[in-house]
Specification:
Layout: E1 3-7, E2 11-14, E3 25-28, H1 30-46, E4 52-57, E5 60-65, E6 68-73, E7 79-83, H2 86-89, H3 94-105, H4 116-123, H5 128-146, E8 151-159, E9 165-166, H6 168-175, E10 182-190, H7 194-209, H8 213-225, H9 235-241, H10 252-262, E11 280-282, H11 283-298, E12 304-307, E13 312-317, E14 320-325, E15 329-333, E16 336-343, H12 363-376, E17 381-388, E18 400-402, E19 405-416, E20 421-422, H13 437-450
Parallel strand pairs: 1-7, 2-3, 16-17, 17-19
Antiparallel strand pairs: 2-5, 4-5, 6-7, 6-11, 8-10, 9-10, 12-15, 13-14, 15-16, 18-19, 19-20
Length: 451
Amino acid sequence: MNGITIYEFDALMAEGSDAAGAEGLHRIPDKVYGWLEDQCLRSAEAREAAWLRLGQRQGRRVVQVTSFVGVIRAPDGFQIEVLPKIGKAIGGSAKEARQLLIEMLCCLQGFRHVQTESAKISAARMPVLQVFIAEFLRTVERIVKRGLRSDYSSRQDNLFALRGKLLMAPHLRQNLYRADRFFTEHDEFLTNRPENRLLHAALQRALMLSASQANQQLARELQFVFADVPASAQPALDFQRVRLDRGMGYYADALAWARLILDGESPLTGTGGHRAPSLLYPMEAVFEAFVAKHLARQLARPLTLKTQARSHHLVRHGGQNWFRLKPDLLIRDAGRDALVLDTKWKLLDGSKANGTNKYGLSQGDFYQLQAYGQSYLDGQGDVVLIYPKTAAFDKPPPVFEFPKSEGLRLWVLPFCLTSRRLAIPRDAPFAEAFADSGAAESAGAELSAAR
């Protein structure tokens, strides 16, 4: 199966273009490029999330991916694997970037069914899509080892022996001259139930998409076990009928994968109602989930971490609240808002503090955090912007102060994706809120030396 691996914000150009190649610029088949351009235009018309955008490089048209990662699958089967840009920024290989992506995706609610260690091993030798197919096959294999669950199913048939209940009206119609037949309704204990039908249909799709010989072989072996189960012809209806009875918890992970594979908006089937393949995930959301999961583990008790707080608005007008303020993370202490944090998936440069660069920070983000501080902290306390840690941004800059809000301070802190720690200056008022004080002390020492 043909495909390429790229990073966020890389550009794609038609294979037939005569433009010279450059870093972050990749050639793809003309037919695939045309399809991507069409997806770009459709998304623009529908005003949907821009996972692609049109541009120009060296005087030639290009399509640039944005801050979405995962897999783009063209109708002809060509696959474009999009990895996090930080993998390139830290000088790592595609394998390392892929492993990082899988670990981060595991923090998303919909990917609880990923077994991280097995996925990391697979990521060392296959693209993300094949890793996910391997994970799905692993969950189905576990079901097969424990046995497919059966259920009683009502069935009507014209039998040679009386079984169950005799249906008199159809019996008289069909067997008026056949004394050896009985038209009955009876229950049979069969594996033909919605859960198994869905898994069989997902196995068929996975086999079609598998590029790995090992995945193909395992998919065929598993299909043999499902030979007596018809593949689901109406997945949406069968998902509504799913009933995980007691003792069927081991079906949950496989059905979660099956929903992704069989969903009409899944990238495994092309494009869906949102025009963008659903296996493309916005890195802003992935990074936020990753930071939230690990920060929550580092908080000192009794502090708690709340995600997507929604309790305040920017203004009131005509007796109504307008413009809800939704910080990514909110640390609370005994019911009181103590610290507001917002994650930003952007690569900063700590060496560019002057001129127009300002580390690469956005003025709009500062306005946003000021509004959060005024509403959630009554203008007194600390607000935090969290960015991924890189070689160019490996320690916090000095604290930012708002001249008109003397009691409000803003901190810009790097979050290390490998150690899963937030670098907190030792002199930060909230340093003690985190049980892991080692990271805070280390960052504080670096900051003091810099001053």
